[in-house]
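hey can u run this one w/ magnesium ion bound, need the structure tokens asap thx
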Amino acid sequence: MPSNADFAAMDAWLGARVGGDDAILEAATARAEAAGLPAIAVSELQGKFLHLLAKLVGARRILEIGTLAGYSTIWLARALPADGRLDTLDIDPRHADVAAANFAAAGLADRITLHRGPALDTLPGLADPYDMAFIDADKQNNAAYLDWAIRLGRPGSLIVVDNVVRRGEVIAGDDAKAAGTRALFDALITERRIEATALQLAGAKGWDGMVIARVV
Ligand code: SAH
Ligand code: DHB
Ligand code: MG
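ok here u go:
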């Protein structure tokens, strides 16, 4: 059986070929580490995946729930045209402070609006439609965030949800994070406003996955 070390080694090999981490992203990660933030950002290859998805759908407006230090945000914002906009939401002021510094250092502060506070407080005040949403915050609220992403989208909008496998714990794990994502899948059984799939991913972050959906 391959281990997480094998997945990480493969990710490093792939990253050296089709990654794309550069000095700005490395500095963003270094700033997050220096501030003691958890190392739970998307991986380099996942960040580039999000970047490519945003470009492929021609996203001009992107919604992100869960900023942390803004690593995924920078990947996404770089996919926008010059007049594109990204709204990113985070509850933790320490995370938001680091993210704001990272956006300024990346030269992206003018394209990104960082909304501080609980996402469920911010979401009702946002104006639709978004072309793409990336859901990556507290997993307990995943079903509510999916509902908001659908309501703030339009037919054809792309929705991506991170961490939907959690080493397989989503099937039966009794912690709140696993249960929250299980509730998301329970909602998807009858959800007719989107077409969705779920992909398992192995790599630098171990075994996890993402939901990819299109608003009908
Ligand atoms: N998308 C980031 C990682 C986000 S980590 C990246 O890949 O680089 C999850 C983030 O969700 C944390 O920063 C945490 O503070 C935030 N979060 C947790 N609960 C939240 C809530 N209720 N509202 C908004 N953000 C929340
Ligand atoms: C966790 C959150 C994430 O967004 C992630 O990508 C990995 C782990 C967590 O809260 O454990
Ligand atoms: Mg995540």
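The mean pLDDT is 98. anyway lmk if its weird
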